[in-house]
Specification:
487 residues, 0% strand, 77% helix, 2 domains
């Protein structure tokens, strides 16, 4: 669940950067050749070392995001046993990260505007560090919950600050590929949590979560602030110095600098959008599409299955959830890369519908496994069917339903409402994530087959929603997309 890609700085200065934020990792070599000749010359004659290093430092935050999200899956049984937690208490612990992230996401625009991109990342690292230490030292559920809430707030801010920073420092011809590393590092972070959680204790895993946070804090001392933000707040001298560090000391930055200043001046002249403006006739369909896709993304159950994967495998009949969570981890990363490759080749609509069909199949297979177990039928096949179903589900979600809704959302809103619309969409996304993660254990206790079949039904509704409502945005300019939506 990657919210970092969903909204612009409220005053609009990051719109140009986020417009290209979701370009896939692998892009056509002929794309924007004419428009980016100067960028290519700049990269060839200058140095992109600082851009790459700054991106690496930034995605340490994305990795921290992933480790936080993936923490509860391999640790549920151990934490409940050590701290004597009830199912309800652990469900609250698991879901509090999404509540904290909602608060972080809502305030992230103002924070990044007020103290800068580096300042926001530094602050969010502090919250994550406090959260992990609280979890490590916890002796009861209240301390555990406080730690989860703090780390959730931290990743809520990180999820916005990191992709905005990357988009604003990267040259045009590298922006898409560098921005995609944000999503990839979130998935890798979650996978590492799954793998480490199968071999180390839950307290040690909490300490391991500190590593990317400290890497981010230390790295921030050696990278420049976003030139766009410096220009926005009127720090002309610092703006020139930061851009020079990013582009190389022998590169002529005058043209790029004048473009940035002119663009910021134009955006600041646009009227600020109020929340109620989103529900005007010309914006309603875009809101329905953006919010609808996020609702679909969450209601297929990814946060329930992901947060509690280990216990799901145990419930299916495994003596331990380690094998299943390891397979889960190794499935996510390559399929996320594949989805990035396919995004501009197959189109958004086909990819998300195929993905939803895969989650439908995976949910149905896993539900069928629990049904067979409950009726003592074909018991030898139950674990195999459950693992196969969950892995198919994860693979399908990683290819389409995970990244594509964020891509479409970034394309369908007009520039002057994108920040406000992004706030709404991210709130809906995290609210859905909280509802699913909090209710998953209760629903599984009520009826394991019924829970999985319900997710399968939501996958079917997703296919119908995309087929009837969502336009294809591949290969269209933002103006063409607006014309298609409003026609």
């Amino acid at each position: 669940m990657t919210i970092e890609q969903c909204k612009d700085v409220e005053s609009g200065e990051a719109i140009n950067g986020l417009r290209d934020l979701e370009v896939p990792l692998v892009v056509s070599s002929v794309t924007d050749v004419d428009e980016s000749d100067s960028d290519h010359d700049m990269v060839e004659n200058g140095s992109i070392g600082m851009v790459l290093f700054s991106t690496f430092v930034g995605v340490c935050g994305s990795f921290a995001f992933g480790t936080c999200v993936g923490y509860s899956a391999p640790t549920q049984a151990a934490i409940r046993a050590d701290l004597n937690l009830s199912l309800a208490e652990f469900s609250m612990f698991g879901s509090l990260v999404t509540i904290g992230a909602m608060l972080g996401a809502i305030t992230s625009g103002r924070i990044t505007d007020l103290i800068g991109r580096k300042g926001a990342m530094r602050m969010s690292s502090g919250f994550c560090i406090i959260g992990w230490l609280a979890i490590f030292f916890s002796k009861c559920s209240s301390f555990l919950d406080m730690g989860r809430l703090f780390s959730g707030y931290g990743i809520g801010v990180i999820s916005y600050a990191v992709p905005v920073y990357i988009a604003e420092i990267a040259p045009k011809n590298l922006r898409g590929g560098l921005a995609t590393t944000n999503q990839l590092m979130i998935v890798i972070g979650a996978s590492v949590s799954f793998l480490l959680g199968s071999v180390i204790t839950w307290r040690t895993l909490a300490l391991a979560g500190l590593v990317p946070c400290f890497c981010l804090l230390i790295g921030l001392c050696f990278i420049p602030e976003s030139p766009r933000w410096l220009a926005k707040v009127g720090q002309e001298k610092e703006f020139q110095a930061a851009l020079r560090r990013l582009r190389g000391k022998h590169v002529d930055i005058s043209h790029e600098a004048s473009e940035i200043l002119e663009y910021i001046e134009t955006l600041q002249s646009l009227p600020k959008t109020k929340f109620l403006d989103l529900f005007q006739g010309k914006h309603v369909r875009s809101v329905v599409i953006g919010v609808g896709l996020m609702v679909c993304q969450q209601l297929v159950g990814i946060n329930g299955i992901g947060f509690y994967a280990s216990e799901t495998f145990v419930a299916a009949g495994f003596s331990s959830g380690k094998i299943g969570t390891i397979a889960y981890a190794f499935t996510q990363v390559p399929l996320t890369v594949l989805g990035a490759i396919l995004m501009d080749k197959s189109g958004r609509r086909p990819l998300i519908m195929i993905s939803a069909a895969g989650t439908l199949l995976g949910s149905f297979m896993t539900g069928a496994a629990f049904f067979l177990k409950g009726h003592s039928l074909l018991l030898g096949w139950v674990p195999v069917l459950a693992v196969a179903g969950i892995l198919i589900y994860v693979a399908a979600f990683s290819i389409g339903l995970g990244p594509v809704p964020w891509v479409i959302m970034s394309e369908i809103f007009p520039i002057h409402v994108k920040g406000t619309a992004g706030s709404l969409v991210v709130l809906v996304n995290w609210l859905g994530a909280w509802m699913v993660s909090y209710t998953f254990n209760f629903l599984m206790s009520w009826s394991s087959p019924g829970t999985l079949f319900n997710y399968a039904g939501c996958s079917l509704l997703t296919i119908l929603f995309v087929a009837k409502i969502v336009p294809e945005t591949k290969g269209k300019t933002l103006e063409e997309i607006q014309g298609c939506i409003n026609s």
